[in-house]
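Sample intake sheet
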Amino acid sequence: MRAMTPDDLYAITWVGECAISPDGAHVAFVATKMDRETDSYQSAIWMVGTDGGEPWQFTAGAKRDSAPRWSPDGKWLAFTSERGEEKPQIAVMPADGGESRLTTKFPMGAGEPIWSPDGARIAFSAKTGTPPDPDPKKAKPYRRITSWSPDGREIAFVSARHDGREFDSSSDVFVVRAEGGEVRLVTGGGQGGCSAPSWSPDGRTIAHIHHPLWPSNGVLRLADAAGGNLRAVDPSFDRETGAGSAPGSVARPAWLPDGVIVSIAQDRGTAAVIVAKEGEATRWLGRGPRMASWYSVSTGAGKAAFVASSVTAPSEVFVTDLAGAEPRRLTQMNASWLGAVAPIGAEHFIVPTGEGVELDCWIMKPAGLEEGREYPVVLNVHGGPFGQYGETFFDEFQVYSGAGYGVVFCNPRGSSGQDTAFARALVGDMGGPDYRDVMAAFDGALERMPWADPGRLGIMGGSYGGFMTTWAIGHTDRFKAAISERAVNDWYSMQGASDIGGTFNRQYLGEAATIQDDLDLLLRQSPLTYAKDIETPVLILHSESDLRCPISQGEQLFVVLRQRGKDVEFVRFPDEDHELSRAGRPSHRVDRFTVILDYLARKL
């Protein structure tokens, strides 16, 4: 058995969105592989029985098939497919197999399908207007249709139509008749962000996820379908709800009889299915040392399927009954890979800080740890900052530990997984409590690592993690090397150059943190302000088409350090964006690991 290497990215099957059949007998799920020959991704829809047995491939998956949706009678499966098309279109296929047929041909593609309750129609979102050039810039977000009314006469959807929508993250739930007509506002009108609307069985109520402000935990909330009467299902439940662990996974609330609602929530480095009802305490379903991402409910069969991973195993499909039985794993898509590779486990521990905060932290030992030897250690800071590390398979950490490095990761203030006060503790003081937490977590980890070499410590991270990396080396010389990736280094230029700068800056740095209001507030929280104090060798990684954190963020740091004659290297990836490490061209993802491991080997 060996440790994971960068090339193993091609061997892993990445299990994604799942959908359980109405009778609870089968689960359709998406399986994705990185294809070396075409340097692209291939996704196919697979099937597995909930009573066990081997899964089988349902669609060809020549390009990308995704978003499986069962018809109400269970006889058909709708999904999005790129077969023969550059953009995804809606395809329909008999559930017992056979030929699929494309039902749409939109120039800019079609979004995920939603069946009408009678199974006669399919709703979906689609971008309209003039198709982009062959080499497009990032398109504007489109409106997402997520739910039909029980009688199929109305559609609930989310849109931002309030004044000032360009400068905040608010959105609302609206309803429109299926044949078109006047749009009815259901929620408050630009008061926080709404997502994932879901009709109650009687059509009188719409459940949805509501973020009152940003950052804050998502709340499972109800609204009368006629509009108004907004209330949280469980006001005492203060955990991020409605978002799974995988990027883009949204846990649309699923209604059960008697007003019971199912979703997903995060807690202290885990994510699991929850069951909630007005007037009752929310309970967890199938909770364990893992993170759930996608889920699907069969109301009639009383079952839920979900996709989850643990530190030592990539995502697989699980099933549980809604009464709370222990989940059963249905798939072992990576059994052969796990037969040859031994992923490294992680030790979870809690670090109490002097400020009365508990931090969840993890240590991964270097592969092949030998008694009496000392090893280099890398502290990795997650992005967001509203996100969490924890009990999930992460190729990054497996590759670094496999290459002989100890890995430390944690959830400082600003992360999800705890209450909203924890998530908002850094607002107006980025680089304050979060930096103190990161360093306290690292100190707590080193106390548990007698094999760590105190002279070979590194720090790295991407996006907000890149911000914290640059910030840290501007405030301490304890690290021998740093890797700052797709970082925010200068809030001044972020305000007008980033695709979220007009909102994100004020949400995190403070309402007055704008060029026109309080420039000092921007500069005080910018890592670039402290670049004059950086002595640590640093590798800057950035994608040239990154619109979230534009490449100028990396360029500015590089120029300052070069002008000061410091040890700095800059690696740029062409034709990649902010998602390089998660969804970039396969060869670039492997190249990125090669660059990182080469740098760590030279510096640590």
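Comment: The chain is about 15% helix and 30% strand. The chain has two domains: 6-129+139-331, 348-490+526-603.
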